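re: ur question from earlier - yeah i can do the single chain one, its not a big deal. heres the input i used so u can compare w yours
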Amino acid sequence: MSIREIEAKAKELQELKRMREELDAEISTLEDAIKASMGEAEQITAGAFKITWKTITSSRFDSSAFKKANPDLAAQFIKTSTVKRFSIA
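and the output i got, formated as tokens:
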């Protein structure tokens, strides 16, 4: 692939990412409007759609607090990984 072809693909990719950001913003706006309309209801039916907005409680391991409280023990379980990062500036 030539440099011009790569440049064209990079330009197209950036445009698609910009469009995705716009769509994500529109999606969030619509979700927020629906949530506001639901008020305190956890579930509503709107025509063919069953819409839920429920509180979910979960428990997760707090690795930062563990490292702070037990730095030596935490160091024994550190796993290093290597990745390649793709970016276009």
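The longest strand covers residues 43-46. not sure if urs matches, ping me
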